[in-house]
Design goal:
- The structure is a single chain.
- By secondary structure, the protein is α/β, with parallel strands linked by helices.
- It has 13 helices and 14 strands.
- Strand 13, helix 12 and strand 14 form a beta-alpha-beta unit.
- The chain is globular and about 60 Å long.
């Protein structure tokens, strides 16, 4: 039984807005001694079919059906009373209790958003009770690695309608020994890209994740722009800074083919993989995320056979931070990295279990935001707590994205000389001559 001062007294949720102006939840966990932990829950636009269920009210008269008052009520009237009296320090017990209370495979009764809010807020309360930052509470004394940023500087797909078929074009400042300098390089490249677009009469408005969203003639044109921006900012493409792409292929997978509407062509999985291989040969691409659709397991196997060891192959929709799907991916040898999103699986302990499974397979773990974010900085702490080595949290120009980068700067100060920026070491499972 928990010491009384560590016991949960109350769990309270309220409806707030995310970065897209859609409702989400903020959750507070209060301990009996008055300590409070709080968090807010992100929401995705490009969501995998196998994710835990984000519960929405679906009442058209309110927020166009996007309200979350049902999930709020589930926290306040069902989850809160069930957790009252339990120790905030026993994360697995808390999470298991909520999973049992929900009783569905995908958390559809109470909502993954409701459960996640209570799960993460309890961890914050425990950390606050102990007087330590969340990264130290979750990761212990071993937590010391600051992640390499994946900076989504050019948005397309579901994040920026009318731009490119592929969803994200990112820069990764790999060739640095210090997080601050790597972050500075990414920011300078972002501004250089804006200048290039402006000079060419292209739009410099931004998409959901803060990246520019110009109308381009092809997907490859976006990659070419990033390489130019790296060079114009004074950095060396393929030495100091690499390119990462997230096609989010599920979004343009139709009837067994990949439809690139902006380019007016339809490709089979082998043909799309041919395209990726051509890009890898031509450009300094270090990572491809969701190169094939979420259930195209045969396509993923072929992609892995063709490009494993040369680039990072990150599964997002195919794995959805779910240990069972990750286990299948490891067994069938379809990738070499997993994107980690707390709200895909719905609890902190399940997320940590997914990361441990990933690590045991010698795969990389990339901690990620969602397109609908808040200024909550939990994922910055999660990346450091687990020594993940990589974080994906958007372009450096919207408050909800910059909050994570700034929190990592604060953590860097707190860690001081023990902090490690892995740089090339974040890609430990690639066979490259740097």
């Amino acid at each position: 039984m928990a010491f009384t001062t560590i016991a949960i007294e109350k769990v309270h949720a309220r409806e707030i807005l995310d970065s897209r102006g859609n409702p989400t939840l903020a959750v507070d966990v209060t301990l009996v001694d008055g300590t409070v932990g709080e968090t807010s829950v992100p929401s995705g636009a490009s969501t995998g079919a196998h994710e835990a269920l984000e519960l929405r009210d679906r009442t058209a008269q309110r927020y166009g059906g996007m309200g979350v008052m049902t999930a709020v009520d589930n926290v306040n009237t069902i989850i809160g009373p069930a957790l009252a009296g339990m120790s905030a320090l026993d994360q697995e017990q808390l999470d298991h209790a909520m999973i049992e209370l929900d009783g569905t495979p995908n958390k559809s009764r109470l909502g993954a958003n409701a459960i996640l809010g209570a799960s993460v807020a309890a961890a914050h309360a425990a950390a606050n009770y102990l007087g330590v930052p969340l990264f130290r509470y979750v990761g212990g004394a071993a937590a010391h690695v600051l992640p390499v940023p994946m900076m989504n500087v050019l948005n397309g797909g579901r994040h920026a309608a009318g731009s490119t078929d592929f969803q994200e074009f990112m820069v990764m400042p790999v060739g640095f020994s210090d997080y601050r300098e790597a972050l500075r390089a990414g920011v300078e490249i972002f501004h250089a890209l804006g200048n290039i677009l402006h000079d060419r009469g292209l739009a410099t408005t931004v998409g959901d994740e803060g990246g520019y969203a110009p109308r381009l003639s092809s997907n490859e044109a976006a990659v070419d722009l990033l390489v130019q921006a790296i060079d114009q900012a004074g950095y060396r493409p393929g030495v100091q800074v690499y390119v990462a792409v997230d096609p989010a292929a599920t979004e343009f997978y139709k009837d067994g083919k990949y439809v690139l509407a902006r380019e007016g062509r339809t490709l089979t999985a082998p043909e799309l993989i041919d395209l990726y291989e051509q890009w890898v040969n031509r450009y300094p691409i270090i990572s491809i995320e969701d190169g094939l659709a979420e259930d195209d397991w045969d396509g993923w196997k072929l992609l892995h056979q063709r490009l494993d060891g040369r680039v990072q192959l990150v599964g997002d929709d195919i794995f959805v931070t779910n240990p069972e799907r990750i286990e299948r991916g490891i067994r069938e040898n379809v990738a070499n990295a997993v994107l980690i999103k707390l709200n895909q699986v719905g609890t902190l302990s399940e997320t940590l279990a997914a990361m441990q499974l990933t690590n045991r397979a010698a795969w990389a773990a990339v901690v990620s935001h969602r397109s609908g974010e808040t200024c909550d900085t939990t994922i910055a702490h999660l990346a450091v707590a687990t020594n993940a080595g990589q974080i994906k949290t958007g372009a450096p120009d919207r408050g909800e994205r910059v909050a994570k980068y700034n929190e990592l700067l604060r953590i860097a100060d707190e860690l001081g000389p023990v902090a490690v920026y892995p740089g090339q070491g974040a890609f430990f499972n690639l066979h490259r001559s740097w």
